[in-house]
Please model this.
Amino acid sequence: REFERVGGTKTLKVDVRVIAATNKELDKEVKAGRFRDDLYYRLNVVTVHMPSLRERIEDIISLVNHFLKYYKEKNNKTIKGIHPDAISLMQSYNWPGNIRELENAIERSVIMSRGEYIVPSDLPIAVQSADKTEIDAGKSIKDVEKNLIVKTLNETKNNRTKAAHLLGITRRTLLNKIKEYKIK
Model:
């Protein structure tokens, strides 16, 4: 391939291959006018579809074991394994954040676990709720958020920095929420 730099006069030769990834269906984005068609056709030489984690439930156990080994060593924990009920919850959860979310869930579980095995209560609230089909229609989003903050603060023995990390928010945001909900 040859090109000239913007404002340049010299033709340069390059031998490169571009590898790109997206979570969008680019052909649909092109049709909707949200992605440039010329760029799409330059990039779309070989397409590899990587199924999401929810499409590869059979991979969850091996990924969990991999992350468990890594995080128990990193945190000097002597966790022997994961309780079958916790595995079942992880396999029924949708994993919208894919492998990154699974990794974060295992890291959190290792940190929170007080026993030899990771049990369902060590998992993030969203994963714990994976098999619950009943929704409490009487609770507002603010009530659910407040309860989640209270539970996380209890689990971290009121360590606000750790609680904020587990909740995926900044410490400042957590402090603002504690003040807003009058949590003691």
Observations:
- The chain has a mean pLDDT of 88.
- Residues 2-43 form one domain.
- The chain has nine helices and four strands.
